[in-house]
Amino acid sequence: GPHLSRLSSMTAEDFVQMGGTKTIEPLPEERKIYIEYGNERWIEGWDYSIAQGTALNLTMNNRVDGHLFDAWAQIQIWRAMHTVFGKDSARVFRLCAGQAVSSWVTRAHLTVIDDPQWNPEGFELMGYAIAPYAPAGSSKNVTEVSQLYPWLDTITEHLKAQKAALEGRNTQLIAYEGG
Q: In this predicted model, what pLDDT tens digit does every residue of 83-116 receive, in sequence order?
């Protein structure tokens, strides 16, 4: 398969040649296909995202950030999927993964998604996925659910900030896991 470093030069035709619809044939037609570039990209491949964002001159408030490239890459994948399934396909669910604790990341993604220079088709974000983990990885020591209760206020504040960042959009806020 293609290496991640080729993503910026890949076309929808490349996607089709690599399998396109073939890769999901076993999926029943009524099922949605949730399309996401990557999850927790700041953990792995971050230097690549920053380098590619710099090469594309993706900036927000005069700041280069890998999240901007990740949003750009997300649009490339949406475009490829819509080439295969049709622009108005009800099967394709355009998803982007963010960081529960940072609505700045959410706004960075939205800056690119909303910019016609980077998203000329005007693809709208359908879902924004975050993982509302317990703070500071401390949940490793949790043995009882009740021990998570003190963190609920903090987690709730993060969720409210995410909801506010998505205000006015027809975008679902999705919690894909929690820890």
A: 888 888 888 899 999 988 889 999 999 999 999 9
What does the alpha-carbon distance between residue 65 and residue 105 come to, in Å, rounded to a whole number? 9
For the four alpha carbons of 152, 144, 134 and 36, in that order, the dihedral sign comes to: negative
Copy the structure tokens of residue 171.
């975008």
Q: Which residue has the higher pLDDT, 148 or 137?
A: 148
Query: At 143, which amino acid appears?
Result: T
Cα–Cα distance for residue pair 56/132, rounded to 1 Å? 31
Q: In 3D, which of 34, 35, 44, 40 has the Cα closest to residue 133?
A: 40
- pTM, whole model, 2 decimals? 0.79
CA distance 36 to 91: 14
Task: With CA atoms as reference, report the closest residue to 85 among 3, 25, 36, 1.
Answer: 25
SS3 of residue 22 by DSSP: helix
* Terminal-residue alpha carbon distance, the chain: 32
Q: Please give the angle made by the CA atoms of 30, 36 and 40, to the nearest 5 degrees.
A: 140
